[in-house]
Amino acid sequence: MTSAEQISFPHRHLLGIEGLKSDEITLLLDRAEGYVDQNRQADKKRSLLRGRTIINLFFENSTRTRTSFELAGKRLGGDVINMSVAASSIKKGETLIDTAMTLTAMHPDVLIVRHPESGAVRLLAEKVDCAVINAGDGSHEHPTQAILDALTIRRRKGKLAGLEVAICGDVLHSRVARSNIALLNTMGARVRVVAPRTLLPAEIGRLGVEVFHNMADGLKGADIVMMLRLQTERMHGSFVPSIREYFHFFGLDYAKLAAAKPDAMVMHPGPMNRGIEIDTVLADDIDRSMIRQQVEMGVAVRMACLDVLTRDLGNGPPIQ
């Protein structure tokens, strides 16, 4: 048993990366490593969560994340229920608190929640009796995405500490960026963000990152280049002059990537806007792109999170 396996995970919920210690993150990464191997076998199913009920409660559409959590729960032997909350349901008058009370009455073991408002998942977690995993809340956090990104990087580079990671694009609206910044800083990587001024949050200087406004400077010497989706659905106003101009200055192609290290790898949390955030040929380049590996790591990481959050259910006092 490794030292990481001996570390307990003392949190009842996984609501964000902020507040997690490096050894707790390492525990999740190490646990996920084992599930990567399991998912590559013919028999992918285990009985760890037999008898457990997992509810996917998505107030926002997300085929990739929801399917990943569904696969994770089923491969661990759990009973998984998908609940897509349409806007019409909210209009009928059911509040988030009403939803929490209804779900609590069903006695689920894990609730996986995605919501368009920052902080909504934490509010829900305070009202239910089960473990809650944040699958993305507004522009706040997306913890499992950051963990799967970290696992992807660690498997390719062998470490996280000391790496230079450039996060590029729509940082302002990105919960993925916030979770990755928190995780990478905690694990000893050096993080820089590259974006036009209109797509950076006002508090960016307090997040422990270097800030660049052009790709040539921002990618210089980078080990990892992480592109972000341009989240037009969250933009109310003019943030970029035009899509063509945005790609010209901030879209990743081979010419811009040349500023990074020769063995620099490319990432994108998906879904990609090809030809806007990243060149299609580069995105599909198996020698430089880790985008497909990110998707594979997503299932393993979500299995690890379900594992650690349910491990102590029914054994002594509840995890805080």
Helix content: 25-40%
Can you list the strand order of the major beta sheet? 7-6-5-8-9
> What is the distance, rounded to the nearest whole angstrom, between the alpha carbons of the first and last residues?
25 Å
**Using only CA atoms, what is the Rg?**
19 Å
Biggest sheet features: 5 strands, parallel
Helix/strand order, N-terminal first: HHEHEHHEHEHEHEEHEHHEHH
Number of helices: 13
SS strand fraction: 5-15%
Structural class: alpha/beta
How many strand units? 9
Assembly state (oligomeric): single chain
Low-confidence stretches: 1-5, 313-320
Task: Please provide a written account of the structure.
The structure is a single chain. The protein starts with a helix and ends in a 10-residue tail after the last helix. The longest helix has 20 residues. Strand 5, helix 8 and strand 6 form a beta-alpha-beta unit. The chain has 320 residues and is α/β, with parallel strands linked by helices. Helix 2 crosses helix 13. The protein contains 13 helices and nine strands. It has a five-stranded parallel sheet. Strands 2-1-3-4 form a four-stranded parallel sheet.
